[in-house]
Amino acid sequence: MVVGSNPVQMPVLTPVPNQTPSEDYVTEFRVEIYTPPYLQGNAQRPTNVVLSSLALTANGSRFQVVFNAPAGNTVCKVVLYHGGYVTHSLHMNHRMLFLDIKGYVAGASRQSLTVTMPPNKNIAQPGPYVVYVTCGGVPAVGQFVMVS
């Protein structure tokens, strides 16, 4: 959802001229639901994603991902995503790692992939991550994991 308005403590229902600049504008109450372009139209998402483990280690180890891919898929990827943290109005330390996969069969609806984790903790620092499976650029619902 996308929401926003003027930064005053109380809603402003009618403009108050010659007050503080933020009170010159009426408070906006509308809410917009954002749908990314890759989910518009008839895009199909990968479904039924199952990971062999939700506790992963950044030492080059492997884990299995099983999922249903959309019909006619030609490219699937597995992404390890860390959302970072917010401090002093700065959002820092994002990480998005495309992991090596084996076992992908183009066009098959049921996929079973062997995924290799990053080689060390310098690349994937310990903490919470989300694993996304994407087919044709369209992601499945993310799976939360803990990387050590």
Tell me the strand percentage band. 35-45%
CATH level-1 class of the largest domain = Mainly Beta
Task: Give the topology string: H per helix, E per strand.
Answer: EEEEEEEEEEE
The largest sheet, given as strand count, sense and whether it forms a barrel, is: 9 strands, mixed
The number of distinct β-strands equals: 11
What's the CATH architecture of the largest domain?
A: Sandwich
Organism: Stereocaulon virgatum
Domain Galactose oxidase-like Early set: 46-147
InterPro entries: GO-like_E_set, Ig-like_fold, Ig_E-set
Pfam family, one: GO-like_E_set
Describe what is shown at a glance.
The chain folds into 2 domains: 1-34, no CATH class; 44-147, Immunoglobulins (Immunoglobulin-like, Sandwich), CATH 2.60.40. Helix content is 0%, strand content 39%. The chain has 148 residues and is mainly beta.
Structure description:
A hairpin with a 2-residue loop joins strand 9 and strand 10 (138-139). The strands form two sheets. Strands 1, 2, 3, 4, 7, 8, 9, 10 and 11 form a nine-stranded mixed sheet that branches. Strands 5-6 form a two-stranded antiparallel sheet. The chain has no helices and eleven strands. It is mainly β and 148 residues long.
List the helices and strands and how they pair.
Elements: E1 47-51, E2 55-56, E3 62-68, E4 76-82, E5 85-87, E6 90-92, E7 95-102, E8 110-116, E9 127-135, E10 138-139, E11 143-147
Parallel strand pairs: 2-11
Antiparallel strand pairs: 1-3, 3-8, 4-7, 4-9, 5-6, 7-8, 9-10, 9-11
